[in-house]
Amino acid sequence: MAIRNIRLMGDPILEKTCKEVKEMTPRTRELIDDMIETMYDANGVGLAAPQVGVLKRIVVIDVTGEDLIVLINPRIMETSGEQTGGEGCLSLPGKGRREQD
């Protein structure tokens, strides 16, 4: 596993459309492992593949620090409510990251 560089707001890759994951390969598993390690290293609660420079539809999430979720080809089916807390996107440095223990 490796910690990858997180792309910051303004990086053109963050504006591009991601490709669907068609099959689980060793390379895809390595990417997921790297994303998990990168997210935890940055004290984040979520990380999408484009944030580490890969245009794939993969997201890792762990809002509690104990319940890791990996989403492959996620689709938003409906939405409701609104965000009430600070922005936690790792591509927007210094905005609402999980506090370190």
Describe this structure in words.
This protein has one helix spanning 26-41; strands at 46-48, 58-61, 69-72. It is an alpha+beta fold and 101 residues long. The chain has a domain at 12-72: Peptide Deformylase. It has a three-stranded antiparallel beta sheet with strand order 1-2-3, covered by helices on one side. Strand 2 and strand 3 form a beta hairpin. The longest helix is centred in the first third of the chain and has 16 residues, at 26-41.
Please provide a brief summary of the model.
The chain is α+β, with helices and mostly antiparallel strands.
Features of the shown structure:
Peptide Deformylase; alpha+beta; 3-stranded antiparallel β-sheet; 16% helix
So, the CATH homologous superfamily of the domain at 12-72? Peptide deformylase
Tally of extended strands? 3
CATH fold category name of the domain at 12-72: Peptide Deformylase
What is the strand arrangement across the widest sheet?
Answer: 1-2-3
Mean residue pLDDT? 90
CATH architecture label name of the domain at 12-72: Alpha-Beta Complex
| C-alpha end-to-end distance | 23 Å
Task: Give the SSE string.
Answer: HEEE
Main sheet characteristics: 3 strands, antiparallel
What Rg, in angstroms, do the CA atoms define? 14 Å
Contiguous helical run count: 1
Oligomer kind: single chain
* Strand content range: 5-15%
Mass-distribution shape: globular
CATH class of the domain at 12-72, please?
A: Alpha Beta
Structural class: alpha+beta
